[in-house]
Design a protein that fits this description.
- The complex is a heterodimer of chains A (114) and B (117).
- Chain A has 114 residues and is mainly β.
- Chain A is built from no helices and twelve strands.
- In chain A, the strands form three sheets. In chain A, strands 2, 5, 6, 10, 11 and 12 form a six-stranded mixed sheet that branches.
- Chain B has 117 residues and is mostly beta strands.
- In chain B, the strands form two sheets. In chain B, strands 2, 4, 5, 6, 9, 10 and 11 form a seven-stranded mixed sheet that branches. A four-stranded antiparallel sheet of chain B has the order 1-3-8-7, with no helix packed on it.
- In chain B, 35% of the residues are buried.
- The chains are: A mainly beta (114), B mainly beta (117).
- At the A-B interface, strand 5 and strand 6 of A face strand 5 and strand 9 of B.
Chain lengths: 114, 117
């Protein structure tokens, strides 16, 4: 069965410092992995996705994530946090092929302090 | 591109009434639309998958007679919460996949907050 675990429910960083949001997955099949961001009162926005191409995936707004099969991880990073990055982040897994269910992690709320 | 809208954004209703939520793909055709539910400070849970012109597929534990889904066209899906009760209060989010597009990518609407008094 597919599942995804976000290891931190809340992460707080200072503006300009690095961001690390952790995600581990479980999948019996070749997974597709995503990171979505949800700002208050707005729809989910896709940050990036991994679909068995390059293991280091670059997304929008300076975010990137690295797929590590040996660690079953897909952590999201950003070198320097911006105030506008404060939001809820979801790690999502599905297995490749067809319209498959997106399985969401519990979410990590990122707070960015001046 | 690939914008999904939902209407209404917020709705408050009395217990026992029915509420309809619309999900529209504004600039693309969506063969498949998905309905999610998000409780406060929790993640999204898939309720059902709807394909244009056919019956929706509901996830285990979701009452199909309570949450009626219609996907009559390639740009519109509706979710009707029938005989709503306070426990149905939640944030309902739809998503849509491009017809003929990458099957992994879903575009999400902004959500509808339902409060049942």
């Amino acid at each position: 069965a597919q599942s995804v675990t976000q290891l931190d429910s809340h992460v707080s960083v200072s503006e300009g410092t690095p961001v690390l949001l952790r995600c581990n997955y479980s999948s019996s099949y070749s997974p597709s992995l995503f990171w979505y961001v949800q700002h208050p009162n707005k729809g989910l926005q896709l940050l990036l996705k991994y679909t068995s191409a390059a293991t280091l995936v670059k997304g929008i707004n300076g975010f990137e994530a690295e797929f590590k099969k040996s660690e079953t991880s897909f952590h999201l990073t950003k070198p320097s946090a911006h105030m506008s990055d404060a939001a809820e982040y979801f790690c999502v897994v599905t297995f490749s092929g067809g319209y498959n269910k997106l399985i969401f992690g519990a979410g990590t709320r990122l707070a960015v302090h001046p | 591109g690939a914008v999904v809208s939902q209407h209404p954004s917020r709705v408050i209703c009395k217990s026992g009434t029915s509420v309809k939520i619309e999900c529209r793909s504004l600039d693309f055709q969506a063969t498949t639309m998905f309905w999610y539910r998000q409780f406060p400070k929790q993640s999204l849970m898939l309720m059902a998958t709807s394909n244009e012109g056919s019956k929706a597929t509901y996830e285990q534990g979701v009452e199909k007679d309570k949450f009626l889904i219609n996907h009559a066209s390639l740009t519109l899906s509706t979710l009707t919460v029938t005989s709503a009760h306070p426990e149905d209060s939640s944030f309902y989010i739809c998503s849509a996949g491009l017809a003929g597009g990458n099957t992994d990518t879903q575009y999400f609407g902004p959500g509808t907050r339902l409060t049942v008094l």
